[in-house]
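Supplementary Methods S3. Input chains for the assembly prediction are listed below.
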Amino acid sequence: MPSLGADMEAGTLVEWLKRPGDRVKRGDVVAVVETQKGAIEVDIFEDGVIERWLVEPGTTVPVGTPLALIGGSPVTPKTAEPLLAAAPEPAAPAVAPPPIVPKPVGRPRRASPAARRLAAERGIALDTLIGSGPGSAVVYADVERATTAVSPRPPVPKRLDFAEMRRAIAAAMARSKREIPHYYLSTTVNLTRSLTWLETTNANRPPAGRLLLAALLLKAVGHALVDAPEFNGFFTGDGFQPGAGIHIGTAIAIRGGGLVAPAIHDADKLSLDELMAQLRDLVARARSGALRSSELSDPTITVTNLGGRGVETVFGVIYPPQVALVGFGMPVERPWAIGGEIAARRVLMATLAADHRASDGHRGALFLADIDRHLQSPEKL
Amino acid sequence: MKRDEITAALIEELGKIAPESDAGRLDPDADLREELDIDSMDFLNLVTALSDRLSIEIPEIDYPSLATLAHATDYLAQRCGG
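Predicted structure tokens for the full assembly:
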């Protein structure tokens, strides 16, 4: 059972999406677990063949409990593209032990977590539905369509348990304020170049290809972290451990209350368009309750962007065991002095909350200044 | 496309973005972003959906015209040549 945050103690296995004998690659989604953050798809972190399940669906187990036994890979070494969905292959009898399956079931119906949730709530068997998603997967709309015929005005579906999410946030934030000696820095960034570049770029693009300011801000943080490793990683019993990559947890507000901060992996290496596509996808999945386990366990820093809600400055609370949080406020037009003259400029307040056990204010100031510098050259982001 | 069809399409797309709200009962002059708690990503998704559905272009510079239900309906109707 993966840990999907410092506060998570246990999770419930909802369903296996692969069977014993199936070959899996790093990044494949193998199971769905129910957590405080909703239904999460568990993606596997190594290649191999599933030998057998160790946990049955419906069982709640503590974090760290092995869920399945994965045998060594008889095939490809670690060259597989992690995000490429594995085509279902027939089990290799020579490798796989006799499958230990509780009951003779067919291949599990492919369905999105949101669809599963809705189907379970409304007592609909997934097998009876026609899937319109990728690979004929049943998606939320399919379940909804099947039920609207019966009840003309279905109740608003409950996809996330807000009380549970509130408890998870409370536990993590209380721990943060108890254990982490925060220090705070802020700087005003002249955003004129970034916003002008963004407006020019978006003017020639259809809506589906447009960028949001958030993508530029995330990229600037990613770039700046390359030279500021002490803000990217975890503080544990052994002291500070730098992150293996720059995986930016992106705070996403959930409609109805609460938030999650799933990772955009290797944000420093993505192009702006790639980063924007990932952000779009991540926001959609966060709000429908369909995040993957690695997205919740991997963030090495968090970025929160409250600009859309009208605040100018964010004083962040670090998400343990991370060591830093970068906050962005709303871009506002303000008087700005340039060479002794006053001009109106669009500016934005960037803040850093950092763990004093891992870094000092001097380094923090350099890090914030570097974010500013990158935002002055948006065409290079 | 008739004006009431455009309103219906708009309300339906708003309902997809803010499923817990009753988009059909919106005050036509209320600010949509505030009323439905729509953020910049939601708004971009709304613009994407509307431009696909109505086969029109909605440049970024026109976003302020979509601020309320009434203004958005006027704007979209004009874009659709109605």
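The interface with chain B takes residues 156-157, 199, 202-203, 206-208, 210, 212-214, 253, 255-256, 279-280, 283-284, 308-309 of chain A (CB under 8 Å). Chain A has two domains: 10-148, 174-380.
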